[in-house]
Amino acid sequence: MDAIKKKMLAMKLDKENAMDRADQVETKLKEKEDEMTKKEEEMGELQKKFSQLQQELDTAQESLAGANTNLEATEKRANDTLRKELDAVTEELENKDNELAEEENKKAEAEAEVQALTRRIRLIEEDLEQTETRLTEATQKLEEASKGCGRDALKVLDSRQTAEDSQLESLERQTDEATELAAENEQRQAELRLHSTNFKNKIHRRGRKVLENRSIADDERINTLEEQLKEAKYIAEDADRKYDEAARKLAITEGDLERAESQVDKEVDEAEERASVATAKARQLRDELTIVNINLRSLQYSEEKLEEELRVVGSNMKSLEISEQEAAQREESYEETIRNLSERLKTASSKETHLEKHIQELKFKVDEAEQRATEAERQVAKLQSEVDRLEEQRALTAEREALQMQKELDEAEDELLSEKERYKGISEELDQTFAELTGY
Fold first, then answer.
1. Is 216 domain-assigned?
2. In this entry, which stretches build a coiled coil (predicted)?
3. pTM over 0.90
4. Other C-beta atoms within 10 Å of 311: how many?
5. 424 lies in a domain?
């Protein structure tokens, strides 16, 4: 009986130890589940931070693109305005050149006509001088002939003198006509000179007014261009500031990304360590489950032994029935012991069933923990590869965008300098044209 009691106590202790180990296994599994939940929450927070940094970078890039668009539109408007003004000035200069060419042609024709009339007057004057010379010679001959000739000779000389007089009169008329033509020519030349002077004055006044208006318009355009240039400079400064802000945010983002990567690396290492610890603990739990199974088998073996002992006790009780009087008290104690043992057997069988169910649940939880650990390792590796890929892609994209922005800013500055040089050339050409007009 003492051996049976000892075995029952040992079985009770084994069952209690098995229950304690099962409770410890459940507690460890809950702790592992809580740790996995925390890791999943931390990974979600890291993903949220990464998406927020991505949104901030996209916002900075959009702001920079808007500033570049405004700068390009302003430069395009300035280029169009300068091109239109240059075309208008070129057209006006061509019209003025055509008018001046026509006036020069008219002046050349008038000068040619004046030269022709001058030559004609010179020829007529030469003829007049020759005629006067011949008249003087004829008068001298007439006087000489009148002294030595008779009337016939006088008649001949008179007729000759009459012819000479008529010829002289015709020459005088031609001279008068030439003089009148010369006077008319001189008057026309004076009128042409006056007209040319008036035209020049008119052109000068008109050119001066045009140039004054153009100068006012140019001043207004210069002011407009200066305002546009200030606006472009402001936009460029704003773009530089936004670029610096974007670069600063990018640097902050890179720092946060590096910290996040280091944190992720640490957490990955910790997760790997915890996964290894969880794997070791799972193995330990499996070992404990194996031990529990062994204990259950030993309990089953003990129960079988108890049943055999009960059978032995039953046989002993049958043998003791012969001496009922002597073993009445023992019989009662044996019956009570049997009842207690039966109740303990029932309790042990129910506890065994409960332990088997609990062991199955523990096995299922261990399998789930292993699956979660495997899934966590896979997600960690995936996140690590995604973080590496995003880091390389972000670095390349940021460097490419920075180079593109610098290139666009340099091109904008070069275009502004070229527009300034073009405006300076136009101003010098206008000044030269005004000087030429004033010289005429």
1. no
2. 222-288, 320-429
3. no
4. 10
5. yes
